Amino acid sequence: MRQSDYIMALDLGTTGNRAIIFDRNGQIKGQAYRELTQHYPQPGWLEHDAAEIWREVRWAMQASLENAAVAAEEIAAIGLTVQRETCLLWDKTTGQPLHNAIVWQDRRTAPLCDRLRAAGKADLIYDKTGLILDAYFSATKLNWLLDAVKQQGINDLSNVLAGTIDSWVLWNLTGGQVHATDHSNASRTMLLNLATHQWDKDLLDLFEIPASLMPKVCPSLSEFGRLDESILGVEIPIMAILGDQQAALFAHGCDRPGLLKCTYGTGSFLVAHTGHEVVRANQLLSTIAWSFQKVDGTVEVCYALEGAIFTSGACIQWLRDGLKLIQDAAESEALACQVPDTDGVYFVPALSGLGAPHWDMSARGAFMGLTAGAQREHLVRAVLEAIAFQVKEVVNAANSADARPIALLKVDGGACNNNFLMQFQADALGIPVERPEVLDATAQGAAFAAGLASGFWHDYHALVETRKVDKVFEPRANAVTTEHFARWEKAVSKAKDWTT
Ligand code: ADP
To answer: From CA 453, how far away is CA 461, in angstroms rounded?
Structure first.
């Protein structure tokens, strides 16, 4: 019998799916990653094929083991972290999804949100869930999916299960045995009551979602089930599930009030731990950071405040796949550095509406200030600057909610590879930006959580200490002027309230 010396993290993001094998020192031993197909059936809509996600998970698990030269028997535990809010319905007898999953960025349910707001439901939803009524969250998407399924002639829901991507993948990992989610993912559905930590009956009724479809809500760090033996030939305990942003928060060691991080992936997410209290702040979301079972059997729940920005790295994907202005994401840095400024061009990254701090589902993307002198380099630079300016807006909102202004930004996520973006971010904020060596903090957080919950590791802070800083970007005086930011804010104001 081989010794179990590794933890496997499954990091199922919006752009792609990844599996990473971590050794006892918290170092990466091997990994596998592939991008996921994005389906855009209509403007403002975005779907994922859940069957493809599951196939990719199976591939990534196998490929990461091969890449690391590690046998499945050597994996002590699995940690799962996923893109949040994206949800689906599936048939528990056939194991097949009943429709493509609706992705968090999808705006199709904005009219339902508008109707609920007009009916005065926004305050009730915010009070119960800590979330701002928006098409971003799962509740209206599940309502839409249930309608679509009924239109397919499926009226008997006794075989139907609902869930976010973690529930779907957990159900498959356990061979259809376990239908569950964790508090951090559940808190993003707009159906979880922050006070009781359970599905809220009034909200399930409001969104017409039968409670019988919903997964069981469990602590983030706990044994969710065991990997079905047919998948890798051995049973492995699944010991943690976290939303991707909460997993990154965990990896950064942000386990108490005053500590925060910003992840630059498909979107950008500034998340601050708020301890054992639900803290509320204007235009920011109150949400669950994570939960765990204490020795006495009770469950401890920690909370966070979040500024959710829908489109950041997604703009880079769009420059590559939509506009074909760049061949790969890294080229955006080289192009931006070829010009001293954007030549007056500004970009509004509202490709999926605007999240924090605007919460405008009807905003749409825009290039402004174009003249005949505008070149590819200027457009690309304007996109990168806009990613940083969006984070500046959210940092400003967080600063106005807290007496202690943010003094250092700890970052992670794929777009942090971009040195131009990181330096511009530091310049625009006027504070240092600290980039770690391992940018996959999301996967790292899931691995740390699974390893701690299984007894593979014992000391959370010692684990966090193993993370190394790659580079600190120091702010340069007057590199980004207040006029430049103000001009960008003006562009944003013009792109708002567009589709109504
Ligand atoms: P997610 O978890 O949301 O899938 P990741 O953290 O894996 O996201 O990051 C992927 C995103 O990072 C993509 O949108 C990609 O375009 C962006 N990205 C990767 N490298 C760079 C780069 N050098 N410059 C800018 N963006 C980048």
So the answer is: 14
